[in-house]
Amino acid sequence: MDYNHITSFLDKFKKIISLSQRHNSVIAEMITKHISFQIKEEMIKIKGSIITLEGSPMLKSEVLMHKSRILSDISSLIPERKFTDIR
């Protein structure tokens, strides 16, 4: 029995997951660069063009103050994806 069609189907998901992990890594690095908190990849959720952070209100306030610079840096490092907001 030939299972190559299943393997190629699952490879698509593998690529999507690794790309998502790369995006989370770059986003965490850029946010950490601009604020005084260490951001972990697990704290970041992406839905469409919106980045959502899980964290304290103080963290979110500091990110809000630097939002435009953070989004600018992220878009220069990930040009294939357009992020419009950080919440």
Detailed description of the structure:
This protein has helices at residues 4-34, 57-65, 67-77, and strands at residues 44-47, 50-53, 85-86. With 87 residues, the chain is mainly α. The protein has a three-stranded mixed β-sheet. Helix 1 (4-34) packs antiparallel against helix 3 (67-77). The mean pLDDT is 89.
Helical percent range?
Answer: 55-70%
Which word captures the global form?
Answer: elongated
Q: How many strands appear in the DSSP assignment? A: 3
* Percent in strands: 5-15%
Unreliable stretches covering 5 or more consecutive residues = none
* Average pLDDT taken over every residue: 89
- What is the gyration radius calculated from CA atoms? 16 Å
Q: How many helices?
A: 3
Q: Report the order of strands and helices.
A: HEEHHE
Terminus-to-terminus distance: 49 Å
**Spatial order of strands in the largest sheet:** 1-2-3
State the secondary-structure class.
mainly alpha
Task: Describe the sheet with the most strands.
Answer: 3 strands, mixed
Summarize the structure.
The protein is mainly alpha-helical and 87 residues long. The protein has helices at 4-34, 57-65, 67-77, and strands at 44-47, 50-53, 85-86.
Helices, strands, pairings?
Elements: H1 4-34, E1 44-47, E2 50-53, H2 57-65, H3 67-77, E3 85-86
Parallel strand pairs: 2-3
Antiparallel strand pairs: 1-2
